[in-house]
Design brief:
45% helix, globular, 7-stranded mixed sheet, Rossmann fold, alpha/beta, 10 helices, single chain, 20% strand, 256 residues
């Protein structure tokens, strides 16, 4: 592996990278939902729904224990909740960026959603080992300071046979990839700076960090290899929208 985790500008180690990511997302939290929907032309909503539908069987079990880690403002959690029956065990929505999490909490309260928030670091979850049936992360895993450590920690809290889903960006190939690269690296940062306001740096703001982080993220074959090395079985990747995004899936091996 050439990349162990997120490398925000100025971060010299994993602790510095985690702090930079937390500060970045706290800063953009007030405009995060608007930016995501505008910049993706609302396609992000489709991706969340498709990912949630993939896990509809485990979500349909009222007592299944579900964690949405790096939940941000809670949109992935809301998509998962559509497959939860009335009175089901609440979904845990966890993030270490307090401003993002506070917006998720308000969203859940306003919609009387069956979810509860948890301020937690994805690399050090305050949860018992083998306690969860499903762990999902949407567009957050890429920001972890150490990908292998994140996968190991998710593996720890999953029950034998428990499922993992990681929805994140990738870099598509061909003509679509070339066209998207122009948008992703030039147009997207400019729109992000406009919406975030004049205090956003032209060189190291969050929407310059985004394409840089996607470029440094392991490509699907490498990511699948890392998942398998971390103990997951039945690992797969399902591309969405020409491979602009995709869903990684795997399981903790069941007890034989």
């Amino acid at each position: 592996m050439t990349t162990t985790g997120a490398k925000p500008p100025g971060a010299e180690d994993e602790a510095g990278a985690a702090l930079a990511v937390r500060q970045m997302f706290d800063a953009i939290a007030p405009r995060y939902d608007l930016l995501n929907h505008v910049l993706s032309a609302n396609v992000d909503r489709l991706w969340w729904r498709r990912a949630a539908r993939r896990f509809r069987t485990v979500l349909a079990e009222p007592e299944s224990a579900v964690l949405d880690i790096c939940c941000g403002t809670g949109d992935m959690t809301m998509a998962l909740l559509k497959y939860r029956p009335q009175g089901a065990r609440p979904i845990l929505a966890a993030d270490f960026a307090r401003e993002m999490l506070s917006r998720a909490a308000r969203k859940f309260d306003a919609r009387k959603a069956g979810a509860m928030v948890l301020e937690a670091d994805a690399l050090h979850l305050p949860l018992p080992s083998a306690s969860l049936d499903l762990v999902v992360s949407a567009f957050g895993f890429r920001n972890l300071a150490n990908y292998e450590a994140g996968l190991r920690e998710f593996h720890r809290v999953l029950k034998p046979g428990g499922q993992l889903g990681i929805l994140d960006f990738s870099e598509p190939g061909g003509l679509v990839g070339k066209a998207y690269a122009v948008y992703f690296r030039r147009v997207l940062p400019a729109i992000g700076r406009l919406v975030c306001g004049p205090g956003t740096s032209r060189t190291d703001g969050p929407y310059n960090y985004l394409p840089a982080s996607v470029g440094a993220f392991p490509p699907p074959p490498e990511m699948l290899t890392l998942m398998e090395a971390s103990g997951y079985v039945e690992c797969a990747w399902q591309p969405y929208t020409f491979g602009i995004a995709g869903l990684y899936t795997g399981k903790r091996a069941p007890v034989v």
